[in-house]
Amino acid sequence: MISSETTGGKVALVTGAGTGIGRAVALELLGRGYQVVLAGRRGELLEETKAAAGAASSRALAVPTDVSREDSVDALFERLQDAHGRLDVLFNNAGRGAPPVPIDELPVSVWRDVVDINLTGMFLCAQGAVRLMKRQSPKGGRIINNGSISAYSPRPMSIAYTATKHAVTGLTKAISLDCRQDNIACGQIDIGNAATDMTARMATGVLQADGSTRVEPRMDVGHVARAVANMAELPLDTNVQFMTIMASSMPFVGRG
């Protein structure tokens, strides 16, 4: 049994922590006093996130990780357990998109990579978190999966991303159901148009369902980071099952 007395505070793991939403959430949690493990494929970007934390960087541990590989995720959780002994919050965030091409032009290799990262990677990290949360003392913790507006409504020419994000919703529901008895809460945040490098193209115009190309509004990624942190800090007898946070005027309600 792993005791909470071996840690100096709440411990969070953020995947995809080298850029964008993952970086913003990691910095927010560090600012709130968490010990934060930073996971992502590119170690140099994780170090940039750590440096951006300033004085709080002493509470950040960068662990280069490919979430699509079981051995890499196993190594991540070994490092986390050795460093902190427990895990209170997993922000299951790592993901990727695909080129906006018609379904018949999408290479199967790209499809598989999107599925491996967005879905299998999220499963592997959730599995590692559940294994640790079930045996630590006190038992339990929280998993927050990064869904998307595309978990409900697709953009044109986004079949791989949309299919995986719909699947994440099923993953969230299954974890929430199956892990109740172990005091593990699981919720999902669905984000629309946070201002990151991934959404930079929206400032110049993106394809719409009617075939037109239009500029779309974006929102400060800091709002997303605070929303995730607020979900994380709820007591485990309370759960935000699904939250949608979006730029108010983006096309979602009535999309299509």
Biggest sheet record: 7 strands, parallel
**CATH class placement:** Alpha Beta
Structural class: alpha/beta
User: Strand portion, in percent?
Assistant: 15-25%
CATH superfamily, please? NAD(P)-binding Rossmann-like Domain
Describe the structure.
- It contains 6 helices and 11 strands.
- It is of the alpha/beta class and 256 residues long.
- It has one domain: Rossmann fold.
- The strands form 3 sheets. It has a 7-stranded parallel beta sheet with strand order 4-3-2-5-7-8-11, sandwiched between helices. Strands 1-6 form a two-stranded parallel ribbon.
- Strand 3, helix 2 and strand 4 form a beta-alpha-beta unit.
- The protein starts with a strand and ends in a 10-residue tail after the last strand.
Provide tags for this entry.
single chain, 256 residues, alpha/beta, Rossmann fold, seven-stranded parallel sheet, two-stranded parallel ribbon, 6 helices, 38% helix, disordered N terminus
Strand and helix layout:
Elements: E1 2-3, E2 11-15, H1 20-31, E3 35-40, H2 43-52, E4 60-64, H3 70-84, E5 89-92, H4 108-135, E6 136-137, E7 141-146, H5 159-178, E8 184-192, E9 206-207, E10 213-214, H6 221-232, E11 242-246
Parallel strand pairs: 1-6, 2-3, 2-5, 3-4, 5-7, 7-8, 8-11
Antiparallel strand pairs: 9-10
Helix pairs in contact: 1-6, 3-4, 4-5
Give a quick precis of the structure:
By secondary structure, this protein is an alpha/beta fold. The protein has one domain: NAD(P)-binding Rossmann-like Domain (Rossmann fold, 3-Layer(aba) Sandwich). It is built from 6 helices and 11 strands.
